[in-house]
From TrEMBL, chains A, B:
Coiled coil: none annotated. Keywords: Magnesium, Metal-binding. The keyword Cytoplasm does not apply. GO terms for molecular function: metal ion binding; methyltransferase activity. This is Benzoate carboxyl methyltransferase. Pfam families: Methyltransf_7. The lineage of its organism: Eukaryota, Viridiplantae, Streptophyta, Embryophyta, Tracheophyta. The keyword Metal-binding applies. Belongs to the methyltransferase superfamily. Type-7 methyltransferase family. SABATH subfamily. It comes from Arundo donax (Giant reed). InterPro entries: MeTrfase_7, MeTrfase_capping, SAM-dependent_MTases_sf.
Amino acid sequence: MVVADLGCSSGPNTLRVVSEVLGAIADRREETVGGQQPPVLDLHVQFFLNDLPGNDFNLLFQSLELFKKLAAKEKKGEALPQYYIAGLPGSFYTRLFPDRCVHLFHSSYCFMWRSKVPAELSRGTVVNEGNIYIWETTPPSVVQLHRKQFREDFSQFLKLRHNELVSRGQMVLTFLGRKNKDVLRGELSYMWGLLAQALQSLVQQGRVEKEKLDSFNLPFYAPSVDEAREVIKQSELFDINHIQLFESNWDPHDDMDDGDVVLDSIQSGVNVAQCIRAVVEPLITHHFGEEILGDLFDMFARNVAKHLQKVKTRYPVIVLSLKARHAPKYPAKDSCHSVFSRGQQRMEDIASN
Amino acid sequence: MVVADLGCSSGPNTLRVVSEVLGAIADRREETVGGQQPPVLDLHVQFFLNDLPGNDFNLLFQSLELFKKLAAKEKKGEALPQYYIAGLPGSFYTRLFPDRCVHLFHSSYCFMWRSKVPAELSRGTVVNEGNIYIWETTPPSVVQLHRKQFREDFSQFLKLRHNELVSRGQMVLTFLGRKNKDVLRGELSYMWGLLAQALQSLVQQGRVEKEKLDSFNLPFYAPSVDEAREVIKQSELFDINHIQLFESNWDPHDDMDDGDVVLDSIQSGVNVAQCIRAVVEPLITHHFGEEILGDLFDMFARNVAKHLQKVKTRYPVIVLSLKARHAPKYPAKDSCHSVFSRGQQRMEDIASN
């Protein structure tokens, strides 16, 4: 069975998907031992961890020995299937695999990033003055460009992955989305809007040129569930097993699920700023230089704190489980890992539990 | 088609095998265009670049974009097959792939390194006094331990790769070997003997303890063609397409094929020392500490120069092309990439030209 994680990064959560898949298989094996022949006993799992070539794959690879020891200890070794882990550098908006090779694609918190800033915005023929993403003052033409880019990217992504998946292969995507129907007031629009405010303050202080801010656009779009569903439907390539939107606090250290009160908005502002800085620092540095980083994110932390005092805002997160439809030109028997075809059925069993 | 390079490193030659395989396929496509349907037109090639987890995969991955551009330019793009490059961290003395997945294994200048120093030597129950590898004063018990380690490693390697290869899959290995029948006077024995001499000088100067030198053993064995052939025969897993020994000058900058004279033995000594330092520096540093490195390799360069003044010595290099025998328990139709089965035949066509 071949499993690919798209946008794996190289942090403490990177190997989570490997753990989860191995754990699901091991549990299934343990369940059936003593009764019938365990159906996943001879399963080999090949994992591909994908990210852009600039990702720290060295760090990731050097953590694998320890990971393997811990995984074996936790699951008492014998329950785990044989598994292999490779690194795969490249954008998931390009082909990453030969035809019909992959049984399961997974991607966590990556798919809201677009393949590029829409050409009209990056050329400056259309300008989103004072903003870095869609916000309250964004003109409709800019909204349309971001939406179009999302539709093109998602549609292309579905085509690429459908070619790479075995027949009836599956895909689980988790990404930031939008709950508010009004695209100008999406929850992520507030987040990026508060960062744009901090940049505007630097413009007022004369530390950043206004043109520099106006020419900076995030390659980002947080779609609504309906927008995502529409592209999937139009593609005619996948059936939707499951689509759901849940919410996650802006502050990653705030695990209070209910209530509309932020206990310590100053600290939450700092936490949010740290988190967002880790994500966008390379983009900011590339466009504005690194001199402004410290002050920018200090101001951003204060802006976030002020916002959270008024209203506790959450990220809407879309979880999407898709199953590839049969491709008419490749009958099922031609799938590229016929020795793994049992693996595919097993993965479906595991996924359906 | 799946191609794996074992011990890929991360230098300027790392992507050579990718170029060569793509070039061979592109040439075959160009040959047949205009005549019959090109047999390799729809071939996708998936490369796995393998090395130990400490290899600089980041450097390698960051060079891929440029490599792809140059490859497309050189071959005018359209002749190249679709290809994908993954990194695979791990020792090639362990399983690296699921069963019956790989069409071609390649390994260049790695397979003379053993999986470990023989246990009796590393525990110190047997000692190779004053030496770091087999040399003139090495006792027969030590020679036997090195030989046994080679046989075990090679036999294990053949079993692992045979499980991973598709039926009739192929393997091309290039590694340092031995031409001299006398194992105590192998060409590599001279090389390591001159490094041992430099370490002995440091012992005499009181900068390295004698016990430290006596407990240092290279996990290395340079077999003769007959020794390699014998292990392959005993394994009953592979047919030998081709086995050959050629010779390469110690000094990588000396491209004079004939003649027994080294033009500038001082410079050649420096060149050889640089080259060997790049290979064994991590092992030396780990055992002796980094303080001795500069002086050690200066002395080694002088020892090599003195040796080359007396006799121009060459590395014997064994090139080995193997084809996997059918595995009785997996009939050919069960190979893991049935959609690539045409690829396998094509690879055989390419390899036989």
